Structure formats: structure tokens, C-alpha cells
Amino acid sequence: MKAELTEKFLELYGQAPKANYFTPGRVNLIGEHIDYNGGLVMPCAVTLGTWLSIAPNQDQVIRFKSLNFPEQHEIALQPAYTKTGSEWYNYPLGVFHEILKKHQIPTGLDLLFYGNIPIGSGLSSSASIEVAMAYALNDYFNLGYEKIEIPLLAQKVENEFIGVNCGIMDQFAVAFGETDKALVLNCDTLKYKSVDCHLGEYSLAIINTNKPRKLAESKYNERVAECQAALAQLNEEIKLNNLCELNAEKFSLHSHLITDETVLKRATHVIRENDRVNLAAKALNEGNLEEFGRLMYASHQSLKDLYEVTGAELDAVVEFCSGYEHVIGARMTGAGFGGCAIALLKKGQEEDFARQLTDFYVERIGYPAAIYISEIGNGASAI
């Protein structure tokens, strides 16, 4: 891929890139919609991702080009920027906006992006682009950011420049991912531990429903607000910074404070899902993939019934997986409302799985899903 990007960079800019970077996408193995509630999540980096090639220019402009999108953008170096429209280049432009608050960029830049993450699928293509840009600027200009500051900066871009109230999980996972490891991340403290995630005779199948999600236009922000409402009502009796400071047992003692039935359902999912992450880490440490798979199914059911973020497409995929003998666990991953599901699929069954799932999904939904087999890969790096 590096050679191909170099060739295209030469064609588009008339010079070779001076540096190249890669940032993966991510899937969340378990622990959904609790990152913004101070809970535990278990993401891993995948081998799909974003490549970025850069070179300085003497024109004092930033040029954004992508092999995935026809839109290009050229803008002068200046102290601040504003998001305009919904074009892809707003994500890296937001990184410049944030970095230029504290640092001077001494030269213009020619930029070329390429990604093989399905856009709008829930595999964190936006976080991958943001972290790739932040990592590249920090590395190329030696800006002095610590590793932990890169995902925090990228999250701020997503929250304030793009306008999506996401938690830290996506940006953290694509920055800190490790091969054959899952990350158990405390989204409140940012403390994390790596958990061996050797899948043995199973592979990680990623099933893209091909129903795009537009998070800023979805009910994602509504779910965030519902969780904040639950926290406010609980704080009438106990003092909490985040919902996930409670476990299921303690939550049962105070849940009567939440008077709205819908808000109660949201909080119940959050508390139970946080407990499931601890159980999942224990299962992986013990090499008990069957138990891990059972927890994946339980997570999806909770996201369907209590959090109501799955939809017909994701439910169809998980329903098929639950009846397919060579899958031991499946669930939606990401924010939902479309996007992707993941499954633990026995190796050697990839073609049969794809054929049978496609037939089932087309009959149920009316169009095919896309199926990828991925390894668990590394986080952001220069290449």
C-alpha cells in the first residue's frame, strides 16, 4: 500500500511523500454505549484502516485529497478553522484547528488519505482519520504530544468541531491497539490493561449491514442525554460522577429514583453491560471462548431490548449467527443504528458462512451485507 500511495502522491502533487502513516479501525468486542458513562469497554484494533502520506509545500496552504472521495480541499494556514458542510476533510481539518491553538505549523502540507474501512459502518473511520492526522503532525513536526494526548485531542475534535458527543473509546483503541490483544479501558480514568485475545480456531468476522449510520443525525446524542437524565435522578440520593460507578446490585437499591421507564431501561443496560465487560475479560483470561460468546449474545439482546439501538439489519445478522453452528458468539458493534456486527466464526467456514448469511440477509432485508475476516492489529504508527 505504501508503494501505491507514493505513486499516486507523485501523480497528484508532483513530489514524493516525505512520511507515511497508518491508523487502524476498531471493533468493540463488548461494552457498548458505556464509554460516555465512565464504564469499561473492550475494543481491539483491526487490520482495516487509514493510510496517510504527507509532504511539505512552500505555498502555506493545506491540501486535502483522498483516494476514496472526489471532494478536495485547499485552505491557507491560519490560526483557526470552522467546519463547513459534511465533507470528509472536516475531520483532519478539525485536527489542524485544535493543534494550531497551541503550536505553529511552519510550512504548508500536501496530504493524501486512503482508507479501506467501510464508511459509516461503525468501525471508527472518523476516529481513524482524526488520529492519523494528529499522530502524523505530532511525529513529523515533533510537537511533543504524549501518546495519551493524541486520542484525547481527536475526541475533542469529534465533540467540538464535528459535533458528535462520543466518548474516548474509538480514538483510544485506534491509537493504543496491540496485535492479538483486547484493551479493557476504563473510560473515566483512561487506565487500561491488555488482555490476551487469542481466538484459536476462531476468526473475527465483521459483517457490514450496508445500512450507513450518520451519528450526528441519529439518536446517539439522544441516548447520551437519557443517560445524563438517569445520572441526575440517581444523584438526588447518592453522589455519582458516572453511571458505571454502580454495579447491578447497588443499582437495584437506587433504581426507584429513575421515574421515566425509558430512562430506566437505558440505565439498566449501561450498568449490566459494564458488568459484562468484567466477565468477558475473565473468560478471555481463562481461554473460555464459549462463555465469551454467550456474553456477546447477551450484550446484543440488551442493546436491542433496553437501549434500542440495533434495528432490523443488525438483528437479522445476529439472528442468523445464533442459528449457525460454527458461530459461538455475535453482537452489534459500534453505536448501532446500522453499521456492523461481529461474530466468532470457526476457521475454514468463511465461504459457507458468507453464502448462507447472504441468502438469509437478502431474503430478510432486501440487499446483501458485506463480510470481512480480520485479525487483531496494531495501533497508529509511522510506516
Automatic annotation (TrEMBL):
The keyword Protein transport does not apply. It comes from the Bacteria. Its EC number is 2.7.1.6. GO terms for cellular component: cytosol. ATP binds at residues 66, 120-126. NCBIfam families: gal_kin, PRK05322.1. This is Galactokinase. It comes from Pedobacter steynii.
